[in-house]
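TICKET: design request
STATUS: open
ATTACHED STRUCTURE:
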């Protein structure tokens, strides 16, 4: 399980219609429930193109999509290994989206 006390405050939602970014292979994006509930403490990396996550896509009933903010430039092989890791629960459940042994991110940089 995640420790909700470690989450950062929610950030303003920046849809792909404003940023021009798209959810393509390697895109890093903010996880969210309702618009404005996303936090930098909960993000995901796209494996393969994911247009349903963009503004106007069908992944969210509100059509606002997710806020893409970065791109993996090196290390997609490791991202795929993490993706194939055992999860805390069955597919389709919220626990099924959390890996059993969390991976530690040792660094990131703006390029």
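STATUS: resolved
RESOLUTION: sequence designed for all positions
ATTACHED SEQUENCE:
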């Amino acid at each position: 399980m995640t420790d909700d006390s470690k989450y950062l405050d929610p950030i303003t939602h920046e849809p792909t219609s404003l940023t021009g970014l798209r959810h393509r292979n390697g895109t890093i994006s903010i996880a969210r429930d309702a618009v404005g509930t996303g936090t930098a403490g909960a993000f995901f990396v796209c494996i393969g193109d994911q247009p349903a996550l963009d503004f106007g896509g069908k992944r969210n009933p509100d059509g606002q999509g997710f806020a893409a903010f970065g791109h993996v430039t090196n290390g997609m092989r490791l991202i795929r290994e993490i993706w194939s890791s055992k999860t805390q629960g069955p597919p389709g459940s919220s626990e099924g989206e959390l890996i059993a042994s969390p991976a530690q991110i040792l660094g990131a940089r703006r390029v």
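CLOSING REMARK: The longest helix spans residues 76-83. Strands lie at 27-30, 43-45, 67-71.
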